[in-house]
Amino acid sequence: MLDLKFITANPELVKRSVVLKNESVDVDKILSLDNERRQLKTRIDSLRAERKKLSRQIGELIKQGKETESLKQNVKEVGSQLAEDEEKLRAVEYELKELLLRVPNIPHKSVPVGKSEDDNVVVRTWGEKPHFSFKPKDHIALGEGLGIIDFKRGAKLAGTHFPVFLAAGAHLQRALVNFMLDLHIKKHHYIEVAPPYLANRRTMTGTGQLPKLEDDMYLCERDDYFLIPTAEVPVTNLHQDEILTAAQLPLYYVAYTACFRREAGSYGKETRGLIRVHQFDKVELVKFTLPEDSYEEMEKLLNDAEEVLQLLGLHYRVVELCTAELSFAAAKCYDLEVWAPATQRWLEVSSCSNFEDFQARRSNIRLRRSAEAKLEFPHTLNASGIALPRTIIALIETYQQPDGSITIPEPLRPYMEADSIPAP
RNA sequence: GGAGAGGUGGCCGAGUGGUUUAAGGCGGACGCCUCGAAAGCGUCUUCACCCUUAAUCGGGUGACGGGGGUUCGAAUCCCUCCCUCUCCGCCA
Q: Which single residue of A106, A154, A238, A265 could bond A17 by disulfide (Cβ 3.0 to 4.6 Å)?
């Protein structure tokens, strides 16, 4: 959420960023509602002041045993005018808040302006495309052939795009999770969090999933809980309604969770196999920083996520998203895309985003630098570190052998307790 | 799921319709004192919004878990929802 005062002071800048992000929210309506709100507020405040004064007089008159009926009648009239204005103000504030929650964050000035994916900028590429002396199989053929991924049974249990991992496939997931957690906890000094997988509306609104993305999430209707689409939601909201001190920052958190996404309207032939699934595992990194440190911390965060792919020896690139591709809440975002050599595609396995104070304001996460200092909002950032299914695609396609077995990259071997997944 | 007890500022805690304009304490900030410090003494202490202002200052309104109601007037009475604790039931 943007500060209402910032919007009224910079309406053209806000309108421009709404267009750049392909959003549609009526900024002029916000300005006129705010005007109306302030007028009503001024009138209500003075009516209340009058009522307060007169009511106190009534109290004194009663003590003195004097007559109060005419004064009571007087205050009653003030009260009914007040009730009318308060009703109007409630309606105006409700409408204003609904609109404010739909104003996207403003892209950082360094973000390339663009209209589509084609305008994203490749920042760097790591490693090289693997070469094969044979025709490599894609991850679907490999996964089914080795008996480690079962798409059909998953569809039976829940529905399409709910894969089952079996045997070495299940072990591979667990190994990857533990490998990533250990890296981020021990080497990069993140604090491990195991949060709830369900979240309420307030929490979902705090990080920006609501109101825009309601249809993209699973909802437990009886209790009005959403299944988390990413650990970003519960972990960022850990400090909802809290006041952080400068000494606490920066705060680094890492959480492994399952993630649930309806992926409404995104089916198609590009989403076969593990590329787009409704439930997947992810290790997520979340940071809270001082405002002036967030862009430096963002680069370190990106490096921490990249290190996972480097250690696994997977060819990847870093892409800076253009304005149109930036998510609603982000001010700047890098994607990590890993190369899947048989599927022949770059696959997004991490988004590294700086939300500046956008989420902190929505979640009411505040910062006080010292006892005398005014309250500020810290900056929040997150990056996947990293998402599993697409990593598994790249990993098994990259490390497949002519005999159909898969070599496990060295750093993962202690976690797999094996150096390969043998051919069937 | 049932019964009961609770929810007051950064923290503890008083407050059952009108000097509560939220007592008192802790913690914190500043000052005095001191060579310096501690102790002591004094002053101060939240957030949001509105008006005014170039800004500060100043004035005002609201907030006692959330929302609604009664009343001239609500932290206080009523309704409703949420959360915490205790006991019971069910259960991995």
A: A106
- pLDDT for A268 beyond 70: no
Cβ contact A234:A195 at 8 Å:
yes
Chain B nucleotides covered by protein, CB below 7 Å? 10, 18-19, 28-29, 47-51, 59-62, 68, 72-73
Global pTM?
A: 0.93
Least confidently predicted of A30-39, A179-188, A361-370: A361-370
Complex-level ipTM: 0.84
Q: Does domain A117-421 have CATH number 3.10.450.350?
A: no
Over the range A340-366, which residues count as b (16 or more CB within 10 Å of their CB) and which as e? bbbbebbbbbbbbbbbbbbbbbbbebb
Q: Which CATH architecture has domain A4-100?
A: Orthogonal Bundle (1.10)
Footprint of strand B on the protein (CB under 7 A): A 4-5, 37-38, 41-42, 44-46, 48-49, 51-52, 54-56, 58-59, 62, 72, 75-76, 79, 90, 243, 371-372, 374-375
- Residues paired with residue A366 on neighbouring β-strands, in sequence order: A243
